[in-house]
Write a structure and sequence with these properties.
Layout (H helix, E strand, L loop, with lengths): L3 E10 L2 E11 L4 E5 L6 H8 L7 E6 L2 E2 L5 H7 E4 L11 H6 L14 H13 L15 H15 L3 E5 L7 H16 L3 E5 L3 H7 L2 E6 L2 E6 L1 H4 L2 H8 L3 E5 L5 E5 L7
Parallel strand pairs: 3-8, 3-9, 6-7, 7-8
Antiparallel strand pairs: 1-2, 1-4, 4-5, 9-10, 11-12
Helix pairs in contact: 4-5, 5-6
Length: 261
């Protein structure tokens, strides 16, 4: 189980302030989605939560522990991150990739065990990629490869999962397939925080949406609570109409520029 608290953090990238006083909280079993324009600090925020980018100010607390006080191995057992463009060495098989998820549990006094083998096989089976175990990643489709990366994340077995645009470069069918698997991680009790650009999918799959603008989380809540025409204008500079689906989920319909007076 994981409870994440990000408290007023400030981050710099190449001396430029990219995140300015961002705060968010995410409970166990929830899917949180960060939305916002390119360059607003979303990816840097995820890296900071994973302790891969230093904090200038603020703190990140995971299950009541300040992550500044956690070792790299402790972090790797608590937080997994799938970056936006994950690449594997040429010729790597699916089985080899998923085994990487168990490396945080190896050490001076613990070598590979039957427990690790079982975790790897169960993860591949859960994500439907066990049949690809001996196939090379570069032989698979985009959707299949993404499921293999998620199997590695599942094998790592961390209470907090961070995903940076996990559906990029996938067609709609594969996007939904991947997001259903991500939702399944939350149903296992994990906290899942991801970046998405597709607002329709964010609305459909997020328990909490975090709207980010110019390095700040400007509002958060359920889709019904925060998705408004005013928010879309603030985030993207786009005029939009907000419609509602039969199950009362907001649907963002951008206006054509030619129609805007």
């Amino acid at each position: 189980m994981s409870d994440l608290q990000v408290n007023n953090i400030h981050l710099r990238y190449q001396s430029k302030a990219v995140v300015r006083g961002a705060s968010l909280s995410l409970a166990s079993g929830q899917v949180g989605v960060i939305v916002g324009a390119n360059g607003c600090g979303k990816s840097t925020l995820l890296k900071a939560i994973a302790k891969l980018h230093p904090l200038d100010e603020g703190q990140i607390v995971l299950n009541g522990r300040n992550t500044r006080l956690m070792s790299n191995q402790q972090m790797a057992r608590q937080v997994s991150l799938l970056p936006q463009s994950a690449n594997a060495p040429e010729g790597m098989t699916v089985g080899m990739l998923v085994r990487y998820g168990r490396y945080p549990y190896q050490g001076l006094f613990r070598s590979w065990s039957k427990t690790d083998d079982l975790a790897v096989r169960l993860s591949m089976d859960k994500l439907g990629v066990l049949e690809f175990e001996n196939r090379r990643l570069d032989e698979l489709s985009g959707g299949q490869r993404q499921r293999c990366w998620l199997a590695m994340i599942l094998a790592q077995d961390t209470p907090l999962v961070l995903l940076d645009e996990p559906t990029s470069m996938l067609d709609l069918g594969h996007q939904i397939e991947v997001l259903e698997q991500i939702k399944g991680l939350a149903q296992m009790g994990k906290s899942v925080l991801l970046v998405l650009h597709d607002l329709a999918l964010a609305v459909r799959y997020a328990d909490q949406i975090f709207a980010m603008n110019e390095g700040q989380i400007i509002c958060s809540g359920t889709a019904q609570e925060i998705v408004t025409a005013e928010l879309i204008k603030m985030l993207y500079g786009v005029d939009a109409d907000i419609m509602y689906t039969p199950d009362h989920m907001p649907l963002v319909v951008p206006q054509r520029l030619a129609l805007i007076q």
